[in-house]
């Protein structure tokens, strides 16, 4: 006990340290002398059948009472020397009784100083050795307090049973038994162990090591005249989780931030851990709760409960800036210079056609015949005026045609070449427009981790000292090793000291930096920063768990409670609370339409051109109508208002298909109608025809 007390004074005792005491009398030590010390002690003892111990104690106290003496002994404090002497006396008595039943024996004198051997002593020893091998004597051996007793030919005990015990509530309780024949045998029910541990966790105060990082742990903002102290200074998923566990398991906790703000990474040079793992190893913390990933390397140093959250690694990247829609995007396939060249060549071709058509004899056709007394003259008319020539060139550009077609070889050649030009121009425009509209869609610079690894323009990094860094560093996959080499050799450094720093680098990088991080933290960030997004599918499955000191007795009971919370949906509700509902309005997910659809923003210019064209045509039509009204008023010599009214009323009678036109004629006009020239007056001079008024 003195050694244990000294160990307590130099802080060698505690629940994070396990002691194995090999002394078979450890169970007799009164550990109530250290009532406020949490002890984790395992020991062994010889088997003590409860009924035989009680009977032995009863025999001892009864014998003392017969002698007029008072004697009390606690059955938990019975030392091995007492029960071994008790069994030795019983064994000797049984052997002596067996010999007395077969032969007469002279008992030796009670003088212990005689150096002469008793003649029957060897025979009694042999009887003791053979006692349990003789079926008729087996029943006599069932009363040994240390259980079955076998002696070999040398008189040594060859069979005994040991109990492995563990200290609970200042008393030792049996876990398993061992004997030379059967080995270890579990004798203590697991439920009883859990009940014992559950009882010991109540009212215990755990030191919880953690680190700041939204949404797991954040500093609370005090309200008016509010002073925050202790655990009340913090809020977040980790706080709600440990609070729920403490209410269910009835323990207390104290939150302490890890000094170096790190999760826990093993330094192969110093052979030491840092961060939360270091705190648990040094006994400065009883639990580690945050976004702490369960890894094989960490599992060698500490224990983990069952996972309370599953996750993976994903890519945090900036959303592409959506280009401003251009109403006149239909003009973009060609540059301004090309459009100017098209306009100029269209006017030039129209002018060239006008010149050639005047020179080509094929384009003149007979309009009427003028007969005189001596000569019959055909009047030829050219149907190609400047307007329909321009209509031909424009119609070809638009993929349309014209009612008039050229007949002369020069005109056909010019028109054919123009059609070829229009065909190439139209098809090139259609192809370029489709390509432009496709390329103007929001395209991702990277779509997955393979794209990220294959390019060198966009830099990427991870959290310094985190599990994601260990994933790439220790991976055997060629892709991930390639990415780790790129990150390790990058200048300046692409590693971030926190997720917040990584997020800021992505925002400031303008799609030139990507941050590889755990998907849970990424989800939280993208819910509150609408300019960021998750790229690609997740890889490298991971799990978050509560870290405990190695071989912690509380791992099972805490794991069981976490499983119950998961089955009841409490862990899901906690995540929804801190990821979706708290600290800001989540980003509204845009409803993505079919990528092949064009919006009004992209084709609105076409509607504007159509609208302007229709409006201009309507205005011209109005002016033509008013000019026609003016001519009618002059011809019929009626007021302009009356002419406008009559023409407007006729225009509104849309079911009438024929329109009569009245023309007033004077005497000269009447005389001309009787002329052979009809309707027009022609004057013939020197075989030339001139039109006169």
TrEMBL record:
<dbReference type="InterPro" id="IPR001320">
    <property type="entry name" value="Iontro_rcpt_C"/>
</dbReference>
<keyword id="KW-0675">Receptor</keyword>
<feature type="domain" description="Ionotropic glutamate receptor L-glutamate and glycine-binding">
    <location>
        <begin position="215"/>
        <end position="282"/>
    </location>
</feature>
<keyword id="KW-0406">Ion transport</keyword>
<dbReference type="GO" id="GO:0045211">
    <property type="term" value="C:postsynaptic membrane"/>
</dbReference>
<dbReference type="GO" id="GO:0015276">
    <property type="term" value="F:ligand-gated monoatomic ion channel activity"/>
</dbReference>
<feature type="domain" description="Ionotropic glutamate receptor C-terminal">
    <location>
        <begin position="205"/>
        <end position="581"/>
    </location>
</feature>
<dbReference type="Pfam" id="PF01094">
    <property type="entry name" value="ANF_receptor"/>
</dbReference>
<keyword id="KW-0770">Synapse</keyword>
<feature type="transmembrane region" description="Helical">
    <location>
        <begin position="338"/>
        <end position="357"/>
    </location>
</feature>
<feature type="transmembrane region" description="Helical">
    <location>
        <begin position="417"/>
        <end position="437"/>
    </location>
</feature>
<protein>
    <submittedName>
        <fullName>Uncharacterized protein</fullName>
    </submittedName>
</protein>
<dbReference type="InterPro" id="IPR028082">
    <property type="entry name" value="Peripla_BP_I"/>
</dbReference>
<dbReference type="InterPro" id="IPR001828">
    <property type="entry name" value="ANF_lig-bd_rcpt"/>
</dbReference>
<comment type="similarity">
    <text>Belongs to the glutamate-gated ion channel (TC 1.A.10.1) family.</text>
</comment>
<keyword id="KW-1133">Transmembrane helix</keyword>
<dbReference type="InterPro" id="IPR019594">
    <property type="entry name" value="Glu/Gly-bd"/>
</dbReference>
<dbReference type="Pfam" id="PF10613">
    <property type="entry name" value="Lig_chan-Glu_bd"/>
</dbReference>
<dbReference type="InterPro" id="IPR015683">
    <property type="entry name" value="Ionotropic_Glu_rcpt"/>
</dbReference>
<keyword id="KW-0628">Postsynaptic cell membrane</keyword>
<keyword id="KW-0325">Glycoprotein</keyword>
<keyword id="KW-0813">Transport</keyword>
<keyword id="KW-0812">Transmembrane</keyword>
<feature type="transmembrane region" description="Helical">
    <location>
        <begin position="603"/>
        <end position="627"/>
    </location>
</feature>
<keyword id="KW-0732">Signal</keyword>
<dbReference type="Pfam" id="PF00060">
    <property type="entry name" value="Lig_chan"/>
</dbReference>
<keyword id="KW-0472">Membrane</keyword>
<keyword id="KW-1003">Cell membrane</keyword>
<keyword id="KW-1071">Ligand-gated ion channel</keyword>
<keyword id="KW-0407">Ion channel</keyword>
């Amino acid at each position: 006990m003195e050694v244990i007390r000294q160990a307590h004074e130099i802080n060698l005792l505690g629940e994070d340290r396990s002691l194995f005491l090999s002394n078979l009398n450890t169970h007799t030590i009164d550990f109530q002398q250290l009532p406020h010390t949490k002890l984790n002690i395992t020991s062994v003892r010889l088997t003590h059948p409860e009924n035989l111990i009680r009977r032995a104690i009863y025999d001892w106290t009864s014998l003392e009472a017969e002698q007029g003496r008072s004697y009390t002994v606690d059955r938990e404090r019975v030392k091995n020397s007492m029960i071994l002497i008790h069994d030795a006396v019983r064994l000797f008595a049984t052997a002596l009784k067996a010999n007395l039943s077969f032969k007469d024996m002279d008992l030796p004198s009670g003088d212990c100083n005689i150096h002469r051997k008793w003649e029957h002593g060897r025979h009694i020893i042999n009887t003791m050795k053979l006692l349990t091998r003789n079926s008729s004597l087996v029943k006599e051996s069932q009363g040994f307090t240390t259980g079955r007793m076998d002696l070999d030919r040398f008189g040594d005990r060859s069979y005994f049973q040991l109990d492995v015990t563990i200290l609970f509530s200042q008393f030792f309780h049996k876990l398993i038994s061992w004997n030379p024949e059967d080995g270890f045998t579990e004798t203590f029910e697991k439920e009883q162990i859990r009940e014992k541990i559950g009882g010991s966790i109540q009212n215990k105060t755990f030191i919880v090591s953690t680190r700041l990082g939204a949404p797991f742990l954040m500093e609370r903002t005090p309200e008016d005249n509010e002073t925050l102290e202790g655990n009340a200074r913090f809020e977040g998923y980790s706080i709600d989780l440990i609070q729920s566990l403490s209410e269910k398991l009835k323990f207390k906790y104290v939150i302490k931030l890890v000094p170096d703000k790190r999760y826990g990474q093993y330094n192969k040079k110093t052979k030491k851990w840092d961060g939360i793992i270091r705190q648990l190893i040094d006994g400065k913390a009883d639990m580690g709760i945050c976004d702490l990933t369960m890894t094989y390397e960490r599992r060698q140093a500490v224990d983990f409960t069952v996972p309370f959250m599953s996750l993976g690694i994903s890519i945090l990247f900036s959303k592409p800036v959506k280009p401003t829609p251009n109403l006149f995007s239909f003009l973009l396939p060609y540059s301004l210079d090309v459009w100017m060249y098209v306009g100029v060549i269209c006017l030039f071709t129209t002018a060239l056609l006008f010149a050639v058509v005047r020179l080509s004899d094929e384009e003149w056709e007979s309009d009427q015949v003028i007969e005189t007394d001596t000569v019959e003259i055909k009047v030829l008319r050219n149907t190609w005026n400047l307007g329909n020539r321009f209509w031909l060139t424009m119609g070809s550009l638009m993929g349309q045609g014209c009612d008039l077609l050229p007949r002369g070889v020069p005109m056909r050649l010019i028109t054919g070449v123009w059609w070829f030009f229009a065909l190439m121009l139209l098809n090139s425009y259609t192809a370029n427009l489709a390509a432009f509209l496709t390329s103007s869609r929001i395209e991702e610079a990277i779509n997955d981790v393979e794209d990220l690894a294959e390019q060198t323009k966009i830099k990427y990094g991870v959290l310094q000292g985190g599990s994601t860094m260990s994933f790439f560093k220790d991976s055997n996959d060629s892709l991930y090793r390639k990415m780790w080499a790129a990150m390790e050799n990058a200048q300046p450094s692409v590693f971030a000291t926190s997720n917040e720093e990584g997020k800021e680098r992505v925002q400031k990088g303008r799609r030139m930096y990507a941050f590889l991080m755990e998907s849970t933290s990424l989800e939280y960030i993208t819910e509150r920063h609408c300019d960021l997004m998750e790229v690609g599918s997740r890889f490298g499955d991971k799990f978050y768990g509560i870290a405990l000191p190695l071989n912690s007795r509380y791992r099972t009971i805490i794991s069981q409670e976490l499983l119950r919370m998961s089955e009841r949906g409490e862990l899901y509700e906690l995540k929804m609370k801190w990821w979706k509902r708290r600290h800001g309005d989540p980003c509204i997910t845009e409803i993505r339409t079919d990528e092949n659809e064009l919006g009004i923003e992209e084709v609105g210019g076409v509607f504007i051109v159509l609208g302007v064209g229709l409006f201009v045509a309507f205005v011209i039509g109005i002016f033509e109508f008013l000019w026609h009204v003016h001519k009618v008023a002059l011809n019929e010599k009626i007021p302009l208002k009356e002419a406008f009214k009559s023409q407007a009323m006729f225009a509104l009678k849309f079911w009438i298909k024929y329109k009569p036109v009245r023309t007033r004629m004077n005497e000269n006009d009447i005389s001309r109608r009787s002329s052979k020239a009809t309707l027009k007056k022609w004057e013939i001079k020197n075989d030339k025809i001139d039109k006169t008024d």
